[in-house]
Every structure is written in structure tokens, then in C-alpha cells.
Amino acid sequence: MEPKKLPTSTLLMNPNDFAPVQARHLMQCWSSQKGYAPIPVAETRGCWIHTTDGRRIFDLRSAHECINLGFNHPQVLAAMRAQMEKVIYVTDDFATAPTAELCQRLARLAPGGPDKKVFLSQSGAVAVEAAIKAARLYQYNRVFKSSGTPPDIDAPMQYPYPYKIISRYRSWHGSSAGAASASGDPRRWFQEPFNLPGVVFAPDAHAYRSCFGERSEAVQANLDYFDYIIEQEGGSNKVAAVLIEPVVGSNGIIPPPPAYLQGLRALSDKWNLLLIADETMTGMGRTGRLFATEHYGIEPDIIILGKALGVYCPLAATIFSEKVSRSFDDHIFGHGQSFSGHALGCAAAVASLDVLQSEGFLENVRNEGEYLGMRLRELASRHPSVGDVRGLGFFWTLELVKNRATKTPLRRATEKYSPTLVNRLSEFLLREHQVYIPSDKFGLWVVPPLIATRDELDFVLRAIDAALTLADTELATNTVTTPSS
């Protein structure tokens, strides 16, 4: 039988008309597919996306928070080109120089002792899966493998070893089954009722929308309730780990109040739980430190990195403390992934670390981050549509409200994918001011590449000022409509 003759590629026949081809055949993330109209890109440079029709768009979300060093950073590209001429990928039965160097540097740079171990994968979600699985296996090994009989425990052995993961409602850890199940974000609802069992959600530490009052009393009340949850879920006999974002990302960019993370570290130690810090968004300099946990002086048992780690290559890391990694010296670490330890991605990550650790780089992020926060607060003082300004380093958000006195949000959790004023402001910024932000957040996302200059920040701030003027006008004329109004 004659093989079927394939048609000539439409894309090759029309090399400058690729956007309709992508729209026809690519499934867009977290979206209904009808009306998908991607903007055709000619090239990217620094903080800017250049389109085929001559537009120059500032990427204020750093390409899903992945491009911390901006587009086409010459030092990273040079490292990738050199590595491509040597080795791109071999399995972990073999060693490559960039893979070894990256693991060593992450082990020594992360808070804690220098002999940590690192599992490398391709996405933050897979890194989270590794962390959850390792936490449960660690507890299993602790109960059954470290001694001949189980140790004294605080509750009846209705289940043979600790397995529950305590997460928080305002959290997002990834779209794979386990990571989404451990996320409080509304996106977990897409896979219910088939979520991973054994995940419990605790309240958020959110000063602007606190369930526990204000100031230090609220923090202590929150921690007391967290302690109550652990005990009621079975204590150290049933709970394996606490999973947090040090600074909440997708659900509002919420830095923790003072003493909160230290309190969670103390609770984890009290109950013999592992503390897992998901730094997929906050790591690699985003907050002005290499790890956000450095701001708070805590040592997690497991740290997760992703997004910006590999710069232009999909790469993520799960960093295990010495205590956790030693548990697998004689017991199987039951997790793995093709392309783990990808040498090209590791070479890019090593080059990225070189840039981030170069003299003055992170100090500049901290200084410019303070300037950015000051200017955003100044804007908020003039625009009643802004309820709260929050952030750290180059990681900020303006939470928008219908009424500042009542704190009524423009978009509730149940309206994440409903059209609201937030969508229109996102479209306005892109159409009128050539600034790209996500449209599915709970306010305006201000997450520029770490290389953004003062002039570029000022350009962005002028655009945000115009967008907030539009928001104020719509609110004042009562033209804002949402499904709940």
C-alpha cells in the first residue's frame, strides 16, 4: 500500500503567517479555545517582546515568571551554545559537569548544611510531586525502616505511617494531579472529585484579609489554629509535612507577616513534620534574595525551584536537606523523570547563578524593588480602586477593590475565569500602553524581569497609572459588572 502523501506544510508556505497556524493547532493553557488569537513574535530582547507588525511590548510578567534575567541574556546564551557542542543529555547513570556543578551549588547555597541532595526535573509541578512523595517516604522510613518496631506515637495507628500534607488555601503548586491537589487555587476544582487524598488546607497568613484580626495577635491566632489542625488531623502519626509558598504567588503575591514562617518552622519541629518551601516563583532572585526564605531566617527541610531556574530551558529542582536525603541512603527514592539532570538546562542554570551572584546584582534588585514599591504605594494613594499594595523585590501586586472601605474585591476566588474589570485593564495595558500582564489574577501583576532599568520601571508605572484611572472611572460611574454583582 502506498504511504499517504503528507500535504506541504502551511507554515512553511507562509513563514510570516504562523500565528493562525498556532491558533488552529495549539491547545492554550487554562482557557477555552474559541477565539484564541496569539500575537506573532519576531524576536525578544531584554524585557521586551517585538512583534511581526512592529510593536514593542514590555513583559511585566517575565514570561510566566520564568525569565528573571530577561530575554536573550548573552552570558546565558553563550553557556548554552558551548554546552550544545559537548553534551545535551545523558541519563543519571552518567555525570556531566554542569549537572554536577548545579547540584553542588544549589546544595550549598540553599539554607542549611552543605551536603543536601537535589532531584532535577522539568517543571515546578514535578518538583512538587517529588517533594510530596519524598516527605511521605521519609516518614515511612522513619516509622518502619529506622528501627525494628514503630516508635511511640501520639495517636492510634489507624494508618501505618504519616501521609497527610497540610497546604494553604491561597496557594498554587502546579497542574499535575498531585501538585494541583495540594493547591488551594481554584484551578484544583477542574480535577475534583479525583484529587489526591491526604491533603488538608489551612488558613492563609494574609494581613489585608486576615481571618484572625490584626497585627501580632492575628499571627499567633493563625499559628494556634494551625497547631489545632495538625492535632485534629492525627498529629505526627498522620501528618507528614507542611507545604507553603514563602511568599504566596498566583493567589495574590502575599508576603507573610512577621514571625509567621518562624512559627510554622517551630510547629513543624514540634510535631516532627517536614517543612516544604515551594520557591518556584520566589526563587532565583525574584524577591531580592536567591531564596525568599532567606528574608525570614528559616531552614526548610525541602526547597522547590522551577520556572526561572533553567532560564530558557525547562528545569526544576527539589532540594532535600541532609536529614531528608540521608533517609534514602539505603532506601529507594521512588520518583524519577526522563531528561532529569538535563545538561543543557543545567548549563543555563549555572550561568544564571553566575549572573545573580555577580557583584551588586541582587542588591540592585532590592534597591529598585524598594523604589518600585514606593511608587506603587504612591499610585495607590491617588486611586481608590486599589485596596492594597503588596510585594518584595521585583514581585508586586495591586489588589483591586470595588469599595476600599469594605474591601469588596473586583474578582473573588469563584470568579477566577469570569470576565471582570481586571480583564479589561489587562487588555487596556496591552492595547494602549504596550505592557503585558496576566488577565486571570486578582489585581494588577507587577513582576518585571530583574534586569529592568529605572527608566523601564517608570514607563511601566505611567501605564499602570493610566489603567488605574480607567478603573476609578468605571467604579465611580458604577459600570463595573461581575457575575456576583
Query: Which CATH architecture of the largest domain is right?
Result: 3-Layer(aba) Sandwich
Shape: globular
Largest sheet: 7 strands, mixed
Helix/strand-derived category reads alpha/beta
Which stretches are poorly predicted, pLDDT < 50 over at least 5 residues?
Answer: 481-485
Averaged pLDDT, please? 92
Find the CATH superfamily of the largest domain. Type I PLP-dependent aspartate aminotransferase-like (Major domain)
Instruction: Please count the beta strands (DSSP E, at least 2 residues each).
Output: 15
Rounded radius of gyration (Å): 23 Å
Query: Helix-strand pattern, N to C?
Result: HHEEEHHHEHEHEHEHEEEHHHEEEHEEH
Structural notes for this entry:
- The protein is of the alpha/beta class and about 475 residues long.
- The protein has two domains: about 40-70 and about 360-475, Aspartate Aminotransferase, domain 1, CATH 3.90.1150; about 80-355, Aspartate Aminotransferase, domain 2 (3-Layer(aba) Sandwich).
- The chain is built from 14 helices and 15 strands.
- It has a seven-stranded mixed beta sheet, sandwiched between helices. A four-stranded mixed beta sheet has the order 1-2-3-14.
- A hairpin with a 4-residue loop joins strand 12 (about 395-405) and strand 13.
- Helix 8 (about 215-230) runs parallel beside helix 9.
- The radius of gyration is 23 Å and the shape is globular.
- The chain starts with 9 loop residues before the first helix and ends in a 9-residue tail after the last helix.
- About 45% of the residues are buried.
- Mean pLDDT is about 90; it is low at about 480-485.
